[in-house]
Amino acid sequence: MRGGYGLLGPRRERHVVPAADLDALALPVGDDGVVIGVDAEGHPAVLGVNRPTPYEVTLIGGLWTAQVLALRTAATGARIAVETGRGQVWSGLAQAAGGGQPCVTLHDVGRVPPQGASAGSPVLVVRDCGMRPPRGRVVAGPWQSVLTLLPYLSPAAPRLLRNSSLVGVQRVSPDEAQEIGRLMNLPRPAVDSLPTLGDGVTLWCTPRDRQFVMTQGTEAETGLLGPSRRID
Question: Do 189 and 57 contact (CB within 8 A), yes or no?
């Protein structure tokens, strides 16, 4: 026994890799979280949704991508609370997710109750409230992230983008691309590419970093939601 440390563990040889071999190592994902697709090199792109600190995400894009993110986050054990004025487009997902467990709940706009998020029961609040989402009653907090879906750039977008930890942008018009580029400090090649992005492609960015990600539905996701699409 060692004072304060309990029993000694088994004695094994250390796992040592020569420094010259480190470049040969590769991990399939870059972080704990949700695999949201693959990057330009075909490597898995991972979004850490369940966090001990508040995390705000804004997606300027299509319903399909938001629903895939919700399904994959639910698969990690998180609860999903959807705030929406079009419950009919979310009802099938809510019924199919969780294998009969009520892990996805639907709420009218402005009617999301406190979720009681914790490390053992993290929550993702998806706000699908149209072009001008009102300020939410339930906000991001420890173990409770918020994803706000905007179908297009709107007057609410500058405020949302400034307050977001991460922004996703799918195909937009050239004028929208210019404004988003200014707000997010995007380089000219990234701005020029936004009007030409294919369905399922998202530019995830912060004012300092950016990455294009292709999201492809699994067989189960495609059966439930249909093929990837930008326009609902």
Answer: no
Q: Compute the distance between CA of residue 92 and CA of residue 35 in angstroms, rounded to an integer.
A: 22
The Cα–Cα gap between 71 and 66 comes to 9
| Local structure of 144: helix, strand or coil | strand
Q: Which residue has the tokens 């709107």?
A: 154
Let me know the angle formed at the C-alpha of 59 by 132 and 177, rounded to the nearest 5 degrees: 85
Number of CB atoms found within 10 A of residue 205's CB: 22
> Which residue would you say has higher pLDDT here, 136 or 6?
136
Give the pairing of strands 166-169 and 210-214.
unpaired
Residues 6+ apart with CB under 8 A from 44: 28, 29, 30, 35, 37, 38
Query: Which tokens in the block code for residue 224?
Result: 């439930």
How many residues are listed for the chain in this entry? 232
pLDDT for 207: 87
Residue-wise pLDDT tens digits, 26-54: 433 345 689 999 998 999 999 999 999 99
